[in-house]
User: Fold these one by one.
Assistant:
Number 1:
Amino acid sequence: MVNSLRDWFGFGQHDHGQAHGDHGHGHDRHGSHGHTHGVIDATIATTDRGIWAIKWSFVILAVTAVLQMAVVALSGSVALLADTIHNVGDATTAIPLWIAFMLARRKPTQTFTYGLGRVEDLAGIIIVLIILFSAIVAGYEAIDRLINPQAVSHLGWLATAGVIGFLGNEAVAVFRIRVGREINSAALIADGYHARTDGLTSLAVVIGAVGVWLGFPLADPIIGLLITIAIFGIVWQSARSVLTRMLDGVEPGVMDEIQHAAVHVPGAHIVEAKARWIGHKLHADVAIDVDESLPLSAANKIASDLEDELFEHMPALAAANIRFATGGHDHPHDRSHSFGN
């Protein structure tokens, strides 16, 4: 299964995150884990099981969207159109991950010294723009139907498509929550519960179909407009998350975890800490102040222990540079420890 996963995504995985995830840190430490399109949480992307979950979530939601699209063409329902766009948006979450892993296999060059991990953010922006465009189309269609009502046909198929959307999202929810608990990923579990909420959105399509059947034709475009508003909320949340990473922003929990790691190392006093994401890998730069009376070997030992703690506490960490703050030892301890492709 692991080999087929690697072939499907086209990359070789060094599962450093899973190794460090088994040291008794049974919860996710990366702060906010809102459901976003185009940004894959590191606790998912650094484990084979996590990527496997993303792959099959994509497959299930893609099949669901294709079936719904067929009924959209048959029934002319704008509510189902909006829900289909919503499910397509969820499915495309896997695309930037696949692109990033494809390009991350390339070694750093004189021009791209950190590799091409940031392509994941670029792909995320493209996906957000696609979803935005689709939401605008769905919103336009819903408003047009409110102004110029049109008959919605094949109500039985329409209701069935809504149920299919619900079942597809519920399957993804159960799958993500189960795997999330296996790999101790709060992010994947949160995504699972969000998928369950998305399933309720699909059931709204059924309500719209029932409304039309009861003689209220505007029920369909009204439901479509409400779902479109929900999609715009996703666009806003996702764009903010992707842009934050593109501008070297990190979740508050990342910096808290760096400080927490130092608590486990006697003599390590952090005076400055920086971190940034490059794709789904985290890079940290930490300056520490140590007792100047210590011999250089002892100071280096403190820096080395802090580096080890950082890697143990932060599964997504790909490189850590530990240095002595100005005024410390004359010989700075600069170490970086990189994992990846």
Number 2:
Amino acid sequence: MASGLPFPFNSNKVLTKKKMLIPKRLKPGATIALIAPSSPPSAEKLAKALDNLQEFGFEVIEGKSLRKQNGFLAGSDQERLDDIHWAFADDAIDAVWCVRGGYGAGRLLHAIDYKLIRKHPKLFIGYSDVTALHLAFYQQCNLVTFHGPVAASDFPEDTLHHFQSVVMKGAANHLIQADPENLSGTELKPFTISHGTAQGALTGGNLTLLAALTGTKFSPEFKNRIVFIEEVGEQPYRIDRMLTQLLQGTDLSQAAGIALGVFNECEPKPGSPSFSLEDTLRNQLQNLNIPVVYGIPFGHVAHQATLPYGIQAELDADKQSLLLLESAVV
């Protein structure tokens, strides 16, 4: 596949080092607010989420809209917004955990009371569509939140290890290593796109959400940061389109490095004229002159790490690893 064109981008933003709000670590017996800020969970997923949290030994309080359905949303926008505000405002609640992703979190960003979030900083956990909330809390509140398993996720041994190390133990120098043994037969093995190492604060999330927020005040700053990106169920041409949007509309090309997760179910349909997923990623990212690696364990997969927004990390594209340099909790 021919190499893509370079993407010069001039940003008028003045970048400053943010003083992050660090939440308290999650302890055994903690009280968890379980919310659905996007789509409604199925009965099976909700039961699994409740079982997971109870097995952790946590107390669970359900958001009022957790069991509601309003089309493709878990209740109205106001109901889901109220659950977010309640979960942060109630000092009896130690952490806010999203039951699932789906769609709809982005509809709430303009109406969130960010002063309330800053006044009551606490653990906030989830991924996929929850990316919109992570980025808003990072941009508007400087709050360290956690791109990690939703409450209804699987928790194999490595996923549990990463979660407990980062969120409960507050480990610094926590290593996240690509592991081809934990991939299914249909998932790409890890590969390095551009060699080298880089350090910077972590930001990123689901590619669809990153592209959707381009041009809004919630779009993240990528310059000098380690950007992590994952996707699920998108054809290579759509991934190419979203990466093009980010490269033309943001300062992604000025990132310190890019860590790509495991892109699940993103190969072209059989018989369709298409580049492969690997060719698409290489074409878009190999000419940025920054370290880029595919296959770091996060995304829509069972084996996933927990990544804290705003925490300093080191990406080693040659070793295909990500090292969290700081504790993300106190």
Number 3:
Amino acid sequence: MFQFKENQRVTRKYFQSGPLQLSYLDYGGEGSNVLLMLHGHMGDAKTFSELAPRLKGWRVLSLDQRGHGWSDHPSDRDYTRESYLQDIYRFIQSELHGQQVTILGHSLGGANAYQFAAKYPELVQALVIEDIGVIINSDMSFTETLPNHAGSLKQLRDLLTKSGVKSMDYFMESIFEDETGWGFRTDLRGITTSVQHINGDWWKDWMTSICPSLLIHGGKSFVLDKDQAELMAERRANTKLAHFEGCGHGVHLDDPEGYYVTVAAFLEEVLAQR
């Protein structure tokens, strides 16, 4: 075990998903309700480390999705939609014995969350979707130009800046140091493949599930525009929209307190409906 802060004990665990060993963090927590957190591209299970211990009445788990964090990188760059969803399914079956979960997902994790709910509605209690739409057209090809290692942290930051990264703090979460320098835990050469698979029109998946959902939108987001966010909330039943005017794509980073208050209030409503 290790600690992020006083009295917050977190356990790193592993499970098998097909040929891959995947990692996750168990933040513990009270109650029988499970909140599963899914990060975005270049993130990892620690993305929500400030939020997780504050959520009362939930056992909080956070997954390193394939190719990220401490999870294996698929040698064949298998980042299809189906493979991401099967990872979540196998996690729930092997680690939670098929227990229903609420899923909070950012960006890639958000798309994985609502698509998983469409395919396995019996396993999903509620959704929190942060700043990802149903018409996705992303480009992260710049990751192919990033080096596996840099001599210093400053050099790596400078390379990210020159690549046009708009949310430095978010991308810095994937960085680690070893004896050769500073690098990324993320499978940099697989990101473009993953993005190619997530791009598309996913209205059908969004509309299929009917569980309570909270859609969080950053007013300065470069991924999800306000019109699409409002249409998503309008067209899907049982969906609330929370708009953060001054935030970008990473609302949980730009306004952590407002994000916590909004998510916690929604989760309290979910518990009250049980």
